[in-house]
Design brief:
Blueprint lengths: L5 H6 L15 E5 L5 E2 L4 H14 L2 H6 L15 E2 H12 L4 E5 L8 E2 L4 H6 L7 H14 L4
Parallel strand pairs: 1-4, 2-5
Antiparallel strand pairs: 2-3
Helix pairs in contact: 4-6
Length: 147
């Protein structure tokens, strides 16, 4: 997660003027039960992990570690339920409306969580917590609301 670059926002037809939106809308309905678990990594941490790997690990190092297909997972190693995520966002943005879940809609996979033990063993870990990343992203949105 993180800020959406302006050229991608334009390609998607997203208006840069978020002043049309209000954090106090009356209701938000989320798909599914809210129980599936997801892992979120801030885009700056992903970039940092990629740089870390390029600067500290060669292809022969990967092969020497006997990793299947030389795959290294990059993630935060923690997951959160969709409901917990929604409540966290609600708190951060100050949403005072109602939030509900439409259980007639699909939940999808029950859990998506990467094993990041290789990255940790190499000495890398993410720096931006989910809470801080959402706060930072929301602040950026508010700061750039009148582009």
């Amino acid at each position: 997660f993180g800020r959406i670059p302006d050229e991608i926002r334009a390609a998607l037809g997203l208006t840069p003027d978020i002043s049309q939106l209000t954090p106090r809308s009356p209701q938000v309905v989320l798909w599914g039960s809210g129980s599936p678990r997801r892992e979120f990594l801030h885009v700056d941490d992903l970039a940092g992990a990629c740089l870390f790997l390029m600067e500290n690990l060669s292809a022969s190092d990967l092969l020497a570690r006997d990793l299947p297909n030389s795959i290294v997972n990059i993630g935060c190693g923690k997951d959160i339920t969709i409901k917990e995520l929604a409540l966290l966002i609600k708190e951060i943005v100050g949403f005072e409306g109602e939030m509900s879940f439409d259980a007639t809609k699909p939940d999808g996979t029950s859990q998506k969580l990467l094993d990041i033990s290789t990255m940790k063993a190499l000495g890398w870990s993410p720096k931006i917590s989910l809470r801080n990343g959402i706060k930072q992203t929301y602040k950026e949105c508010l700061d750039n609301a009148n582009l």
